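Worked Example 4.2. Consider the chain below.
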Amino acid sequence: MIEKYRWYLICLFIIVVVSSVFPVYAQTGSSTPTPLYQDGRVLLEDDFEDGDARGWVLGNNWGVVQDDEGNYVLEARNSDYAEARRGETSWYNYALEFRAKIIQRSTVAEIQALFRNDPSRKGCQRFRLLLGEDTTTELSADALGDALWNCFGQQTNSDAVVYIPNKWYSIRIEAFQAQIRVYIDGELVITLDNDEPLYSGAIGFIGTSGAITNYDNVRVIELIPFGADAAAPPLPTPTAAPPIVSVADNTLFAEDFQADAFLDMRTSGNWYVETDSSGNRFLCNESSDNWLAINLGDATWRDYTVEMRLKFRSFSGTNSLNPDFTRDDFGLQFRVGANRHYVGTIWISEPSSGVGLGYVESEIWDGFIARGLDFTVNTWYTLHAEALGDLLRWYINGRLTLLAHDTRSTNGSIGIYISPNSEICIDDITVQEVHVFVPERYITVKVASANLRSGPGTEFEQMGVASAGASFPVVTESGEGDNLWYQVLLPFGEQAWIRSDLVIASDGP
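Applying the procedure from the previous section yields the following structure tokens:
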């Protein structure tokens, strides 16, 4: 008996000694493992107390305002998915910290943050964090313009937080290699280990229709491996490709319908030239029970842009999906070949309306991206489609709306179609051969803020605001003297116009 207990005590002693030298961590995670990363350098810090958004590219209805406590904040006011963006597409491992407060509710998530955002990337281009709408806490990855394209599905935690108006929330998003961690008020609410990560990109926020949201104390901190010297040079990061911009070489086709004949356009159905009260002439169709189409151009056309103006005369088209509602479908086809083409579409129906971009082969639709967008009757819209190498872009009223990459159709003509019983008018069709733009001149904003517009004049829509010190490459210019305007390339591939007296022009960035 004594011998038995003696061996028991010896074994217990060995266990105690070994445990003191080699600690055992419980499988439950009650002991904290060594972290993979730690905070390094601060890449960006902005509390907006200088009263402006210097360095930010702001969409419509974004600006710096003073809240009820006298604090300056970045505010999105009914900005309808316009964005506030900042940073470098080469940013790699980092944490994004900010505070957010919902002032006025909407029917969708009122707080939306972007990170690892790079629209020049093929496929999915950015991560988006959506918070609000009472309890929404959602992480997704999508393409430019809309979250309908979720690359890996959605990571949600509907029980994490109940979002209350007029209350500040502290958010921290950590993106280190393939790991994403989201913290709300210090609590980990979403974890993602993505097998196909988006490794780099800038940051930003998205406004939502009907909502008012305040953002403050924005910080971006580089994340470095645990135990590394925070003052050491940063690790090498992937180099982001510059945005691809096209420049016109020569005009392949132009038609403004000022003459009655439009002989270079092949049509099906009844089309006629109409004259408005100002004397402008444009092409319209007669309503038909059949699909109507127009084709123009040459099958050898490769890299080009096609621009035109469009308006809907009425929303009365036949809805083959649901006969209880009307539906109007318009399509602008490009690189049309034998049984294949790309197409930018507009659909308008009583439940919803929107735009889409896709590829069609042998009447089978392969959609790239779609998003909701409202249209009104008897309003002219400027459409601009671009095909340059494998890059496909579609603009509406000067705004980049849809983007995709594809190589299945490399050349072809242009087509237009409309659905049965739909009525449209079109005008000012221009097709231009294009090549990739290489910047030679730059401008730098010299005033506190300068408006970015969709065209060379104050009568054109304001696209956003550039703050003092912001620098952009010049694409082209228009006008002269006091009415000289520069068309510039924004950091995310969009183009805008800025008045020359608000900037300094130079031969380098």
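The domain at 47-225 is CATH 2.60.120.560 (Jelly Rolls). Confidence is low (pLDDT under 50) at residues 1-32, 145-149, 232-242. Compare this with Example 4.1 before moving on.
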